Amino acid sequence: EEFRKLALKSAFVGVSLDRVIGLDTRADAELSRMLLSYVTEREVAGRSVPPDVWPIVARYGAPGLAAKLCGYLEHPAEAHRAAAARALGHLADPRARPFLEDRLARETDPAVRRALERAIA
Question: What is the DSSP letter of 79?
């Protein structure tokens, strides 16, 4: 429980989740749920969402997550588009493929294009 709180607090104060030691091995469905709730609260308040939450949230999925990530494929920031593509690739939801392909056809940023290509593969 304390580890989940640490990860959530890191996201809350703007510390990259990449800096949370052990996140890859200790993240679980409850942390994914907590981070998704955090994202929803931020969106409702009109605040930005850190893009590095998407890979963690996508590990365990949630109803409506694929649709939310497809929306983030259109985000003006490259980091959000790339993170959304990586997360959609992890979800492997076949309904997301047309959105990934459409974004790839329009994407100009090389890093985002690579993330989209991997997600489609």
Answer: H
